[in-house]
Amino acid sequence: MRILFAGDASNLHNCLAHQLRLMGHEAMVASDGSRWMDTHRDIDLRRRSGKLGTIRYLYDIRRALPRMTGYDIVEIASPIFLRLKPYRVARVFDYLKANNGHIVLSALATDKVYYDACHDGHTYRYSDYMLGDQPSPYVGSSEYIMQQQDNWKEPFMSRHSEHILGGIDGAVACLYEYFAAYKPILGDRVVYGGIPIDIDALSYRPLEQAPEKVRLFIGIQRDRHVIKGTDRLLAAMKRVHDRYPGITELEVVENLPYDEYTRRMRESHVILDQLYSYTPGTNALIAMAQGLVAVSGAEPEYYDLIGETSNHPIVNVSPLVEGDIDRKLSWLVENRDQLPQLARMSRAFVEKHNAAPVVAQRYLDFWKRISC
Prior knowledge:
alpha/beta, five-stranded parallel β-sheet, 16% strand
């Protein structure tokens, strides 16, 4: 098959493209490199700041469009797959739809469908936006974030979302949350794909015995610090370090390129990742593939979706339970003899559910189904 990936997030599309090429398919990635992550792309669509940056960006897109035709599948990264206003994105979308085979949405980021599910009062117990029936800390964290959130309520965003949903042939969700949001709308036209991890590119060094000091690692995305809950995770991490100063070490990194980020985490034992998620994200899975233990989201609904009944290595922390993060981090420190076993289970989990060939095959199966 010939596949075009338009846009990317957290290296997902690039990882898929690399794996598909190994499987004998042709794959092209047109993206901004997931912004500061600077991941590989075949067509560079970075948007630089300022008026001149905007003009150059529009020029780059127009110049790239002839290369983005004749594909069997176009997989777009969310309804806003370019850093443009919705009406401009819609024009590019229509061009891609008219000049390619099938067009599929990667449900991998906040959009109108996910935003509505977060606020409907029944899809999730908690989310980026709501903790039970109360707004999350993210909602009131800044005027800018409030404006960004309110955009999803606007009629122009509803119209854009309807336009994209009316034009796609289906969607593949990378997280349980996105699958749950899209299932009532698309029915059988949405499937769960998961997050692909190139496990062969990550060094796995199993922990053979309990470490003398537990090294706790957290990566911060500056503009998503509150929405991902890393503010609360970092605070808990520091409290646990103060409680166990002799047997814990901390490493905090911020907005690193992808390759440096994965290198920096390798010497740690435990990674702290998203708090408001039902599903482990890219950072947690990359860490698990290298033999780290992930403190992240791993709710029963997620395990049920992927059919995993026995191997549950992710340390699930709840944003709804006071002190839950502190208690579970303290347990890991006090029971560090359990870390080698959890590390082996973590690697096995990623090999089974998120190895790039496994995830790529799910995408291929879905693309072939909608092409029939």
